[in-house]
């Protein structure tokens, strides 16, 4: 038996396994609903489509930098359950989680418009909410006992991007320009960290 081989092989193994690629920090963007779960729907425009478009734009726009990797809980019109989503999140152990939704009130035309942010009961979640409201404009921020917030171990917020039954919001949220603008703002929030 070649003694050299016996010595070199384990050394090689140690060197190989201690080599790690530069760790990109992970940020999870959760597009709410999907598949048979349309979320809110007004005039044929659904929440599930809007949030998927915004999430996909965030991932696309974020490709220009190397510090953060965006992982989406869904990148097509499918429906991972809430438990699937939080299991995935807790496995990835991301820096932060942003869950995207769109509001709708019972009225036919909502006088209320604009975004709202729900947080976990933690400073990190509230700090993230403050950053988002600084970027998007002052808005309601409050704690809420929602699965994605309660079960995610990472700092998480749920952002309602606007009211689907407010005509102005609906036009903006369903437009390509609006979806890109919103995505760009999230990318700025993520990268300014
Ligand atoms: Zn929703």
Automatic annotation (TrEMBL):
InterPro entries: MurNAc-LAA_cat, N-acetylmuramoyl_amidase_3
Pfam families from the UniProt entry: Amidase_3
Catalytic activity, reaction form: Hydrolyzes the link between N-acetylmuramoyl residues and L-amino acid residues in certain cell-wall glycopeptides
UniProt entry tagged with the keyword Acyltransferase: no
Keyword Hydrolase recorded: yes
Entry's EC annotation: 3.5.1.28
Keywords of this entry: Hydrolase
Domain MurNAc-LAA, chain residue ranges per copy: 86-191
Enzyme type, top EC level: hydrolase
Source domain of life: Bacteria
Name the UniProt record assigns to this protein: N-acetylmuramoyl-L-alanine amidase
Organismal lineage: Bacteria, Pseudomonadati, Bacteroidota, Flavobacteriia, Flavobacteriales
């Amino acid at each position: 038996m070649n003694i050299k081989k016996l010595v070199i092989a384990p050394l090689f193994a140690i060197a190989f396994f201690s080599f790690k690629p530069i760790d990109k920090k992970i940020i999870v963007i959760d597009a709410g609903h999907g598949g048979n779960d349309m979320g809110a729907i007004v005039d044929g425009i659904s929440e599930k489509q809007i949030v998927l478009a915004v999430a996909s734009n965030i991932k696309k726009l974020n490709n220009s930098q190397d510090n953060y990797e965006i992982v989406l809980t869904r990148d097509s019109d499918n429906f991972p359950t809430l438990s699937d989503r939080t299991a995935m999140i807790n496995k990835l152990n991301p820096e932060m989680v942003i869950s995207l939704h769109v509001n709708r009130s019972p009225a036919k035309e909502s006088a209320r418009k604009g975004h709202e942010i729900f947080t976990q009961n933690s400073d990190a979640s509230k700090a993230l909410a403050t950053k988002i409201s600084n970027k998007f404009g002052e808005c309601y921020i409050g704690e809420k006992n929602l699965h994605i917030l309660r079960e995610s171990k990472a700092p998480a917020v749920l952002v309602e991007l606007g009211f689907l039954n407010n005509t102005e919001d609906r036009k903006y949220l369903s437009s390509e320009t609006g979806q890109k603008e919103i995505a760009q703002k999230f990318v700025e929030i993520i990268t300014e960290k």
